Amino acid sequence: xxxxxxxxxKRVLMAAIWSVALALLATAAGQQPGLYTKEEHPEVSxxxxxxxxxxxxTKKPLVMDxxxxxxxxxxxxxxxxxxxxxxxxxNTAICGGNLDCAEKCxxxxxxxxxxxxxxxxxxxxxxxxxNYKTGEAVGSRIYLMEDDQHxxxxxxxxxxxxxxxxxxxxxxxxxxxxxxxxxxxxxxxDEGNNKAGAMYGTGYCDAQCPHxxxxxxxxxxxxxxHDIKYFPTGKHxxxxxxxxxxxxxxxxxxxTTHACEAEGPLRCDGLSGNNSCGDVPEDCTCCLEAxxxxxxxxxxxxxKDGCDFNPERLGGHSFYGRGEEFVVDSSKxxxxxxxxxxxxxxxxxxxxEIRRLYVQNGKVISNSKVSTLEGADGADSITDAMCAxxxxxxxxxxxxxxxxxxxxxxxxxxxxxVLAMSxxxxxxxxxxxxxxxxxxxxxxxxxxxxxxxxxxxxxx
Length: 460
Prior knowledge:
It is a single chain. This protein is mainly beta. It has six helices and 34 strands. The strands form eight sheets. The protein has a 19-stranded mixed sheet that branches. A hairpin with a 3-residue loop joins strand 4 and strand 5. It is globular, with a radius of gyration of 21 Å.
């Protein structure tokens, strides 16, 4: 479970930068609104703060992502699911084509009681707790809204974003995430046959260009819909810029930039098209090598690897973990502060640095310092120089620079992004990229003692 609580912003920042303190405690699916359950958005408290005027608190709605909702025949009195079976398949008795399925399938609402009892999303006194497993429901993803029809859009250049989190019960292999994605404010309402919109959590995208989304841009993703090892996927993916503020469990944490060349959500083609998704064939095994003709990961529109700041990976072995021996003790709540600095200290300048601070037990804690990168030892923030040193030292492809670096990430932050919060597992990699060893099982090229391979203590 993960807790995020409202908290007044600490005055830990330069006067030039405004502060946003969110009460966080705090997909593209589609596409008709259901008829049987009224959507009832729970509300959390958030605060917008400035140095001169202090903080102004208000309550804002949260909404569950469309992927988790019951998707069924949209006709009155009809209850059959549009996707069912093992493996899951589209019900051709209900609909036949991409637009047809978007028109004839409905996303059902979720009552306030169901948010808690069916999906494990518990909102109390302005804070929200996400449980990993509730009944048959596993994980969840929710978004912060401006009102019941629109997502709240965050423009974070020259700003600070603050929240408090308790990840003490998140074990290895789980990820409690707070992040921003460049979704559309209305969830893609009226694109294709999307009549549900943000009110029902539609429009998801991220830098990994996920293919498991049932609907993208108001159309069903039913072409080449097939079951792979852990879940079904379709031909198309949904790409957009992603800024990971907090990906963590009790043993490891990371914040990461993922810029994209495309602006906003892109419905990308996979291997059977122009592969703007950057998909890699299942039988391609050479992506870690400098020359690999089959690896299209770095030919897509988004920087999937990103530039991350994981204390363990960068040499801060005793910085974050469960217990008093760590500088940041994950067994206790901690306030997480992220600052987005621009070159000219304005809201329109180029992003040049992303800084991180923590507050715990009334003490401001500076971020961990880098000790594993050639030419960047002592760095404690994400900059173009730190990211270049990371890619060079760890022998990784520098797609970060190719996709625009911090300036590219800053453009998306300037246009506006939607706040997402989720709790998930990763059956494909067991979350090794966050808390264990990655790349995994490559002892000749990436032994565990190679710099950058160890991400956390899990799996030892």
